[in-house]
Automatic annotation (TrEMBL):
GO terms for biological process: acetyl-CoA biosynthetic process from acetate; carbon fixation by 3-hydroxypropionate cycle. The gene is acs. It comes from Candidatus Iainarchaeum sp. It comes from the Archaea. NCBIfam families: Ac_CoA_lig_AcsA, PRK00174.1. Residues 90-470 form the AMP-dependent synthetase/ligase domain. It holds the Pfam family ACAS_N. This is Acetate--CoA ligase. Keywords: ATP-binding, Ligase, Nucleotide-binding. Residues 31-83 form the Acetyl-coenzyme A synthetase N-terminal domain.
Length: 650
């Protein structure tokens, strides 16, 4: 019988850590919350010293000039040194850092020890240097989950270059926008990647994206035998450059507040924004959240299934676990290749002990049935995590019962691209673990739930999730090239001293928070963050579209899916136009953004000032009463809208 890491509250669906779990956990003392909040600056100052090797200690721990703030001012360190060198120096060079699993089952895993990682990262850092990349320069990364992903990120960090990863399923247009915004001179990509048994071409998209951008050099990782066109003088094969490069490269001494990376995310307007993360604060935060929330020990094997294109892939498939000196599994491909038992096969074969995935994936697995899970022995698991969107009770229970076999705690981790690391979650050694309740603000972070009039809400009343200063060290430091947007997005609704998360939330009890979802125009499609604005921009560029509005529709598996209301000009609706519009969205953003439905209507409902009333459209797609239409400029539009959304009632 495998160890039970949790026990159930006899009366309620609430779980607590077992004595064994408490004993093993890196953090099991609940007084830490109070201690940390009494003096967060002191707490983080001690934690930063404990977690990382600094070449120079800071002279000021926190500084705030609202809405801007800084941590560890004057401190110096290098992120790649902290993720690699120091583990080698401490005698852990032969420990497995990364076990990379290719999608094709006839290929062997690639194992990189910390020593291997040191050599490869150093070589690649020298390659980047030879291309003229200097401290502070931006490097674009357009990579699927190939085995070189962490090498690319850490090589940038080693020389103080700022990486900007673009999700490989994003379109050439999205890549181009981001390369331009970041002014990246070098791009790292791959010629292809495996997905559901097929070798897909990536280089072609990368070429289109690099065209008309500031990119002068493209480094191409060879993943498979795809026919690849290389531009002379611009494109270079990664493996050829690596062979010739010097295997030693001294890590650059960076200021704690130097940017480590930019990651673009969807905001309330159409144009994605480049969220900036710094070096020392981010890494301190990534370290402690990995250590306490995933409870990483020396003998753990951690698997975070997120793609590097998202913040979760940055913090929990690279910086956090590596800073902790942990062993991680990275998987290249699809969860259902060659069948739906692939994930569980990987867990069993690699004795994964901590597993972190998204509710969408859990719902997909649940739909396929437990027989795929039952084929494998999952007794190595001891902590399960969820991220990306609220997890519903059914998915939570399925995860708990069938993956954790009623033995493992589930940490439902709430955070954002902007927060850099998990901010609300239970800790495995403290608990409780409650379905649909994310849990408690991480020690040293401070949250309140306020209503519109800035009054704190009572238990079970809905409100807005707000972070209070001092802001956690892992928080964003700005929006690339656009400080005004930073202030407007996060620090205007509740003043410049409170961070507005754009999420709705409730107090479940005095300690624990239930996050209910976005209150802005953001939707989470299979855990991927998209805004109605960027979708509408993509649709509106189609020549026959006069106007459009996109709203989310709840979906059993994907959480939400986009539905588009479109007013055409000069042409009649047809299947061809529907197809063209969908194609347009895929080309401009990527397949993640594919609308589920295009609904052609005569008019969109508008306020007297001409604003589209998305609230009404949202109600129509969920088949709920639309409420008051008195303030509409065109109440007559409603009859047509109701008729067209009738498909919902069938
Ligand atoms: C949502 C992902 C409820 C939330 C790390 C947030 C969640 C947005 C949870 C950020 C959770 C993430 N429970 N909602 N455990 N985790 N969210 O930037 O709406 O891709 O604001 O970062 O995801 O999405 P992002």
């Amino acid at each position: 019988m495998a160890t039970k890491w949790v026990i159930k509250d006899k009366k309620k669906a609430i779980y607590w850590p077992s004595e064994k779990m408490k004993k093993k956990a890196n953090m099991s003392d609940a007084s830490i919350y109070k201690k940390a909040l009494n003096n967060p600056k002191k707490f983080w100052s001690e934690k930063a010293l404990e977690a990382l090797d600094w070449s120079k200690k800071w002279n000021k721990v926190y500084e705030s000039k609202p809405p801007f703030f800084k941590w560890f001012l004057g401190g110096k360190l290098n992120a790649s040194y902290n993720c690699i060198d120091r583990h080698v120096e401490n005698g852990n060079g032969d420990k497995e850092a990364i076990i990379w699993i290719p999608e094709p089952t006839n290929e062997k895993p690639v194992v990189l020890t910390y020593k291997d990682l040191l050599e490869k990262v150093s070589r690649f850092a020298n390659v980047l240097k030879s291309f003229g990349v200097k401290k502070g320069d931006r490097v674009g990364i357009y990579l699927p989950m190939v085995s070189e992903v962490q090498i690319a990120l850490l090589a940038c960090a080693r020389i103080g270059a700022v990486h900007g990863v673009v999700f490989s399923a994003f379109s050439a247009e999205s890549l181009n926008d981001r390369l331009n915004d970041a002014n990246a001179k070098v791009l790292i990509t791959a010629n292809g990647y495996y997905r559901k048994g097929k070798l897909l071409d990536l280089k072609k998209k990368a070429d289109q994206g690099a065209k008309g951008s500031p990119v002068k050099k493209v480094i191409v990782i060879k993943r498979g035998e795809v026919k690849t066109k290389m531009s002379k003088g611009r494109d270079y094969w990664f493996h050829e450059l690596m062979e010739k490069a010097d295997p030693e490269c001294k890590p650059a001494e960076m200021n704690s507040e130097s940017p480590l990376f930019i990651l673009y995310t969807s905001g309330t307007t159409g144009k994605p924004k480049g969220v900036i993360h710094d070096t020392g604060g981010y890494l301190t935060y990534a370290y402690w959240t990995s250590k306490w929330i995933f409870d990483l020990h020396d003998d753990d094997v951690f698997w975070c299934t997120a793609d590097v294109g998202w913040i979760t892939g940055h913090t929990y498939a690279c910086y956090g676990p590596l800073a902790c000196g942990a062993t991680q599994v990275i998987y290249e491909g699809a969860p259902n290749y060659p069948d739906w038992s692939r994930f569980w096969k990987i867990v069993e074969e690699n004795q994964v002990s901590v597993f972190y995935t998204a509710p969408t994936a859990i719902r997909m697995f649940a739909k396929q049935g437990v027989e795929f899970v039952k084929k494998h022995n999952l007794n190595s698991l001891r902590v399960l995590g969820s991220v990306g969107e609220p997890i519903d009770k059914d998915a939570w229970m399925w995860y708990f019962n069938h993956i954790g076999n009623k033995r493992c705690p589930i940490v439902d981790t709430w955070w954002q691209t902007e927060t850099g690391g998990i901010q609300i979650s239970a800790l495995p050694g403290i608990g409780p673990f409650i379905p649909t309740v994310a849990g408690r603000p991480f020690p040293g972070t401070n949250f309140v739930i306020l209503d519109e009039s800035r009054k704190e809400v009572k238990k079970n009343e809905g409100g807005y999730l707000i972070q209070k200063p001092p802001f956690a060290p892992g928080m964003l430091r700005g929006v690339w090239g656009n400080p005004k947007r930073y202030e407007k997005t996060y620090f205007s609704d509740y003043g410049n001293k409170l961070y507005f998360t754009s999420d709705g939330a409730k107090y479940f009890d005095k300690n624990n928070i239930r996050v209910t979802g976005r209150v802005d125009d953001t939707m989470k499609v299979a855990g991927h963050r998209l805004t109605t604005g960027e979708l509408e921009d993509a649709i509106a560029t189609y020549e026959h579209v006069s106007e459009c509005a996109v709203v989310p529709e709840p979906d059993k598996i994907r959480g939400q899916v986009p539905v588009a209301f479109v007013v055409l000009k000069g042409v009649k609706e047809s299947e061809k136009i529907t197809e063209d519009i969908i194609k347009q969205v895929i080309e401009e953003i990527g397949p993640t953004a594919k609308p589920k439905q295009i609904i052609f209507v005569n008019e969109l409902p508008k306020t007297r000032s001409g604003k589209i009333m998305r609230r009404i459209l949202k109600k129509l797609v969920i088949n709920e009463p639309i409420g008051n239409t008195m303030t509409l400029q065109n109440p007559e539009s409603i009859a047509d809208l109701k008729k067209k959304t009738n498909y919902k009632r069938k």
